[in-house]
Fold this protein.
Amino acid sequence: MLKKSHDVKVKQQKLFIGLFLFSTIFSFINLFSFISINFYSEYFIALMVLTISSNLISINITKVFLIGVIVDILVGSILGQYTITFLFLYGLQVFSQKYFLMPSKAQAILLRFISISLGIIIVTIISQIFNPIFFTNGSLLNYLIIEIAITFFILIIFQIFYERTYGA
């Protein structure tokens, strides 16, 4: 395994902090308010999928748990919602690393898409207990498809920032 230089680690930590602050700010902004849709993108799930899958920062289960608790407190959602999701995503990544030692580019993209999809489904299921709006109009599937697509697009943007910082 190649060791990262100190400069690369510092750049990656700065990028993680910058993306975390960006995610915190934009989590409260409805980007689709101009078309009267109440929709908030899942920036933190995109950030955690990038962080866990690309080793943006050195991460272990304790850090994942603490980041999840911090996100739960910052977002003000159901306490433990993002913590459970992030721990599940971390477990999925550890599991996939056992079967894909050197994943191809297509496999890496598929694994990230599956991670985002499962993360959004978990967050939505947990929040459904407290927000039963989808039971009345049956638009849960449409909501999930749109949210997964937009969150995957956000992950691609975060990946571009990561590649420009790290030069991967």
In short: The chain has one domain: 41-166. The radius of gyration is 16 Å. The first helix runs from residue 6 to 26.
